[in-house]
């Protein structure tokens, strides 16, 4: 009923900001760190700071839009802001997926969250891609590091041979093949069933899934090989008509709040991982450090896969992927330096850095306005 009401409200409205149903969409559950801060708390703070001019109704858990429909949904105005995972729309977002598949270059999630945000807000090819898809990019994100969470011991390179690993597609699937495993591309919502029924040996995802997806019930072993982290797409993508109907003051409020929650969600995500892993260990889960052969295989893959990324990007119509990756490397390296001496648990310090180095450099009068 809530979904029907919201859709009817949108259909009946004009373009005036006050008339548009201000829906915020995320397909993770409300208790997830990428929702409870960057959407639930964010919506409250935005409403307060804009004196109610921007008043989002948050729909979590896919209750408004399913994962694969979030990009089209924000373009069409079903949602005014949404999270979107780029893996669901590789044809529509080749630039975002090229960058997202470069997740092995630096596996520090804080660096990659800030770098992907700066890239998405400033790179000309990325900006053109957002515009073509009917979205105003607001900011990025990053999961915590991906680990192998398994229902069987996977401690070494030998152990991983032939194992069925749930992967996020793209580079992750190629890595599985590189080390002799079998990649299985399924949504995160199906990891539990796969491990429980034995159709999967391991789920490769951020370890907060031990709690947020209840994987601790079916996982007996975890390998701490850092298999990248995921950040393709965006944490906040806005409907253009909605964005352009806002006052400059309201857009600046959104910039400030996105700077804060870009940092906040990363701090909270890592806290959730620590809690989930600690609880799972207390419940009997065994944790392995990767052996030298597995670590070496990952390093070999990272070097070799850049050429594959470039070739795949060209096949999807990107004319100069080498230049895009060079720009992204520059931004990643810049953020690695900027964050080197900042406490990764200090939300206020991290948010201040995001504000000063990213959002304060945007022009609230012009960004996303054409």
Automatic annotation (TrEMBL):
Entries under InterPro entries matching the protein: DctP_fam, TRAP_DctP_sf
Signal peptide: 1-21
Subcellular location as annotated: Periplasm
CDD domains: PBP2_TRAP_DctP_like_1
Lineage top rank: taxon: Bacteria
GO CC annotations, alphabetized: periplasmic space
Pfam families noted in UniProt: DctP
GO biological process, one term: transmembrane transport
Principal subcellular localisation of the protein: periplasm
Keywords assigned by UniProt, alphabetized: Periplasm, Plasmid, Signal
Protein name: C4-dicarboxylate TRAP transporter substrate-binding protein
Biological classification of the source: Bacteria, Pseudomonadati, Pseudomonadota, Alphaproteobacteria, Rhodobacterales
């Amino acid at each position: 009923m809530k979904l029907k009401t919201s859709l009817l409200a949108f259909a009946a409205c004009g373009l005036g900001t006050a008339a548009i149903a201000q829906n915020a969409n995320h397909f993770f559950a409300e208790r997830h760190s990428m929702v409870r801060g960057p959407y639930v708390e964010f919506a409250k703070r935005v409403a307060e700071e804009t004196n109610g001019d921007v008043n989002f109704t948050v729909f979590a858990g896919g209750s408004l839009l399913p994962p694969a429909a979030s990009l089209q949904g924000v373009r069409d105005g079903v949602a005014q802001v949404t999270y979107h995972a780029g893996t669901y729309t590789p044809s529509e977002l080749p630039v975002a997926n090229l960058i997202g598949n470069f997740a092995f270059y630096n596996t520090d999630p804080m660096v990659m969250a800030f770098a992907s945000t700066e890239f998405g807000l400033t790179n000309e090819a990325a900006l053109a891609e957002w515009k073509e898809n009917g979205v105003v990019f607001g900011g990025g994100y990053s999961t915590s590091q991906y680990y192998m969470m398994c229902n069987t011991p996977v401690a070494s390179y030998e152990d991983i041979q032939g194992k069925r690993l749930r992967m996020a597609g793209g580079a992750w699937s190629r890595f599985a093949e590189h080390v002799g495993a079998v990649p299985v591309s399924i949504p995160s919502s199906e990891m539990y069933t796969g491990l429980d029924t034995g159709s999967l040996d391991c789920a490769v995802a951020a370890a907060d899934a031990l709690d947020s997806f209840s994987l601790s019930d079916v996982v007996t072993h975890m390998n701490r090989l850092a298999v990248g982290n995921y950040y393709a797409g965006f944490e906040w993508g806005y409907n253009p008509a909605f964005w352009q109907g806002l006052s400059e003051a309201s857009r600046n409020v959104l910039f400030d709040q996105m700077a804060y929650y870009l940092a906040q969600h990363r701090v909270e995500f890592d806290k959730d991982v620590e809690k989930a892993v600690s609880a799972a260990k207390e419940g009997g889960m065994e944790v392995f450090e990767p052996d030298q052969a597995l670590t070496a295989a990952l390093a070999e893959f990272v070097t070799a896969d850049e050429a594959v990324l470039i070739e795949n990007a060209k096949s999807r119509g990107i004319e100069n992927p080498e230049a895009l990756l060079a720009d992204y490397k520059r931004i990643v390296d810049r953020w690695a330096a900027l964050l080197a001496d900042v406490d990764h648990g200090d939300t206020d310090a991290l948010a201040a850095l995001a504000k000063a180095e990213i959002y304060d450099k945007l022009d609230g009068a012009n960004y996303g306005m054409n």
